[in-house]
Amino acid sequence: MIASHQLVPDTSMGDLYYWRGSTKGGFSIKYALQLIRTDVDGISEAKWDLAWKVPIQQRVKVFLWLILHNRILCNANRVRRNLSQDPRCPRCGCEEETTIHLLCDCPYAKQIWLSVGGSALYSSFFTGDITSWICINLQANGLTHCDKWPTCFAITLWWIWKWRNCCIFNRTHDIPLHTGTFIRSQVEDTWNAINNALNVQQNMIRIPQMINVRWIAPFDECFVLNTDGASKGTLGTAGGGGVIRDNRGIFYKGFSAHFGVCSAYRAELKAVAIGLDLAQEMDIQRLEIQMDNKACIEVLNNPDFQGGECYHIVRHCRKLIHRTNWTIHLKHCYREGNRVADKLANIGVAHLDSIILYNNPPVAIKSLLREDLEGVTTPRLVT
Ligand SMILES: [Zn+2]
């Protein structure tokens, strides 16, 4: 771990804030959600997944989310928020209209459930606390019902709430006479609409195609630096490698480096930095950098990127890239077109020297260099 961190004697650079949730240091909703999910207790996690995945309209999902947070304004919750002083159920007069009472235990709610049928006909249906009751019904296993039940269950919850409000606001004429028939037709409509949308989506999915990938020399007369980083595991023993060739594919220099323990992302960036130093020593005027890691190319190309634990490496690379006395072009390539650098990176993982420079190609990459020269291709499945 220590071997992968270099002390940077750069006094022009002060301390930096960056978002710890992602490797690159940039904020994203995806990583924020990941952090939130790892911070809360693991027990209640399944319920969010269940509520999110049930085939249902978005507004009903939001309603489920409110129920699971105990946020719907039943009378017990209104009293708790000082919005009312009467916690009783407006329909049956029960002492406290809690969420579970409103949606499950109230005789009016029970009547609706029984009219819907399905799993609601089983006596065990009206048991349990609100979270487990909702979770059991949102997953299709363990109960005797068709796979439409979670949709039916969520829609029934939605209409029980709607009709309860109709009662309060004197709009009982909005409540259908045959609640069960009404809900079942809503379930059918929702089910068909969602499945049609899914079919359209599936038809739009692009069919994977097999392409042949090879190392591609730049068209112009310039040198090519292929680099790659390798890490065994998410945070494992890592190394980097790189090779500098001319646009005919003739080998000039190469290196393999051992980075200790670090992420593949850090290893990729460290490999580019070494490659750039090497190219600078060779006094190259025009250089194309080829690497198979899109995230690194994005970070190196983005002048607004200012964070992340690898920022000092990015900064070092950028300084070199923007040097005035050479022209550098960064290009993404597929891994299959970056095999020499990949091989050298793996050599770097295995050896103990921090860096080995090659003036002549090591035996391990000779055949790969020849294949690149001859334009040998490797198949790759792309979508
Ligand atoms: Zn009631």
What does this structure look like?
This protein has 383 residues and is of the alpha/beta class. The chain folds into 2 domains: 32-204, no CATH class; 214-382, Ribonuclease H-like superfamily/Ribonuclease H (Nucleotidyltransferase, domain 5), CATH 3.30.420.10. The protein has 14 helices and 8 strands. The strands form 2 sheets. The chain has a 6-stranded mixed sheet. The protein has a two-stranded antiparallel ribbon with strand order 1-8. It binds zinc ion. Zinc ion binds next to loops. The site of zinc ion has 6 residues, from loops.
What attributes does this structure have?
383 residues, alpha/beta, Nucleotidyltransferase, domain 5, elongated, binds zinc ion
List the helices and strands and how they pair.
Layout: H1 29-39, H2 45-53, H3 58-68, H4 75-80, H5 99-105, H6 107-116, H7 130-138, H8 149-168, H9 179-204, E1 209-213, E2 223-231, E3 236-245, E4 251-262, H10 264-281, E5 286-291, H11 294-301, H12 311-321, E6 327-332, H13 339-350, E7 355-358, H14 363-374, E8 378-382
Helix pairs in contact: 2-3, 2-7, 3-8, 5-6, 6-9, 8-9, 10-12, 13-14
The chain binds zinc ion.
